[in-house]
Specification:
The chain has two domains: 17-244, Type I PLP-dependent aspartate aminotransferase-like (Major domain) (Aspartate Aminotransferase, domain 2, 3-Layer(aba) Sandwich); 246-371, Aspartate Aminotransferase, domain 1. Strand 4 (124-130), helix 5 (139-149) and strand 5 (152-156) form a beta-alpha-beta unit. The longest helix has 19 residues, at 246-264. The strands form three sheets. Strands 1-9-8-5-4-2-3 form a seven-stranded mixed beta sheet, with helices on both faces. Strands 10-12-14-13 form a four-stranded antiparallel beta sheet. By secondary structure, it is α/β, with parallel strands linked by helices. It is built from twelve helices and 14 strands. Helix 1 (17-27) runs antiparallel to helix 7, helix 3 (59-69) runs parallel beside helix 4 and helix 3 packs across helix 6. The protein has helices spanning 17-27, 35-48, 59-69, 87-94, 139-149, 200-210, 233-244, 246-264, 268-271, 295-307, 337-345, 357-371; strands at residues 52-56, 77-81, 98-102, 124-130, 152-156, 164-165, 168-169, 176-180, 193-197, 274-275, 282-283, 289-292, 313-314, 346-349.
């Protein structure tokens, strides 16, 4: 009998998801109108502590919608961390603007505020702060930098539902923020996204552009070239059920992260592991439990785990190492060594709400088993 592979993630749909979807089906509201859309937007805005939430069909679309609505376009530049999922840069590229890639902090793994100045040019119009793997960015420093240089501060909070900085939620720090509700996220709708903002005029414009640019007061009258970026009522129904349990889902993530840290930290110095840093002033929600290992061991370790029925994922490749963003115009030929090393040495372990202590024991024991024979593993 083949033992099922321990997955990296799986959705937790043990609430009212089925009930609400069936209600939407019974009511016949299956497209981009319906009571669950309005409810999901209202409740997500309240959860993030902002005035407005605008539902979209995915997280990449949410980010592009913000940039396009702000008028970012050809000739403009946007500061983006090199170590991030490619959607952060692709959304900029969709507008015709250029993503300018910035170095990462080796401790937080997020955008390094101290390395922004060197990437800044007169063409920069915005800064995208990515809360990577659920670890919130240094938002006070980034807000100060953006204000000093007249930049739009945008949060890519795709992986950071419920993360906080100084008690304030991710999604409430920038001019606007983009969230993802993909199937592997802490809050999921299958596919889906959300834009949050406190800016009334921007929210009005975001709604206009996401609905093909149709005037809300005059049906089939289009004043701008918009996009079909709407969420379905079916997806929103799932989202409403997820939000009812969001605190529980978050507590489960923090429980899992604590269990991993308890088991792995005693071996960190011996085996050269670097676990995700913790900051008492912020809440890291651990979308995935992440760590770095000596680079030459990362891929063999992942293969070793898989042989033992445990799935894992490598970190994202630094964008400046990928064919589409290698050109010097994206990074000004600056060295981005921390971003590159993060992409080469990091991996994510299984992180989902039903992961139990026994399975965490099994995962961590397998990691120790792999590294134990190596007398020197650093490097």
């Amino acid at each position: 009998m083949i033992t099922p592979l321990v997955p990296v993630t799986e959705p937790d749909l043990r609430g009212r998801e089925r009930q609400y979807v069936n209600e939407a089906l019974d009511e016949g509201w299956i497209s981009s109108s319906g009571r669950f859309i309005d409810r999901f937007e209202r409740e997500f805005a309240a959860y993030c502590g902002v005035k407005h939430a605008i539902a979209c069909c995915n997280g990449t679309v949410a980010l592009h919608l913000i940039l396009a609505t702000l008028g970012i376009g050809p000739g403009d530049e946007v500061l983006v961390p090199s170590f991030t999922y490619i959607a952060s840069a692709n959304a900029v590229t969709y507008t015709g603007a250029t993503p300018v890639l910035v170095e990462s902090d080796p401790t937080t793994w997020n955008l390094d505020p101290e390395r922004l100045e060197e990437a800044l040019t007169p063409r920069c119009k915005a800064l995208i702060a990515v809360h990577l793997y659920g670890r919130p960015c240094a938002m006070p420093a980034l807000r100060a930098f953006a204000a000093r240089h007249g930049l739009h501060l945008i949060e890519d909070a795709a992986e950071a539902h419920g993360a906080t900085i100084g008690g304030r939620k991710a999604g409430a720090w920038g001019l606007a923020a983009a969230f993802s509700f993909f199937g592997n996220k802490l809050v999921t709708t299958g596919e889906g996204g959300m834009v949050t903002t406190d800016d009334d005029l921007l929210a009005e414009q975001l709604r206009l552009y996401k609905g093909q640019g149709m005037d809300p007061e005059r049906r089939y009258w289009f004043s701008v070239v918009g996009y079909n970026y709407r969420m379905t009522n079916l997806a929103a129904a799932i989202g409403c059920a997820q939000l009812e349990r969001v605190d529980q889902l978050l507590e489960q993530r923090l429980r899992i992260a604590g269990a991993y840290r308890e088991r792995l930290l005693p071996y960190a110095d011996r085996f050269g592991w670097q676990l995700a840093s913790e900051d008492p002033e912020s809440r890291h929600v651990h979308w995935l439990f992440s760590l770095r290992v000596p680079g030459r061991h990362r891929d063999p370790l992942m293969a070793f785990l898989r042989e033992r029925g445990i799935d894992s994922r490598p970190f994202f490749h630094a964008l400046h190492t990928l064919p589409v963003y290698q050109d010097g115009r994206f990074h000004g030929h600056r060295r981005l060594d921390h971003a590159r090393l993060l992409g080469e040495t990091g991996l994510n372990l299984p992180t989902y709400s039903r992961l139990d202590e026994h399975t965490i024991d099994r995962i961590t024991a397998a990691m120790v088993e792999y590294f134990a024979p190596h007398t020197t593993v650093r490097g």
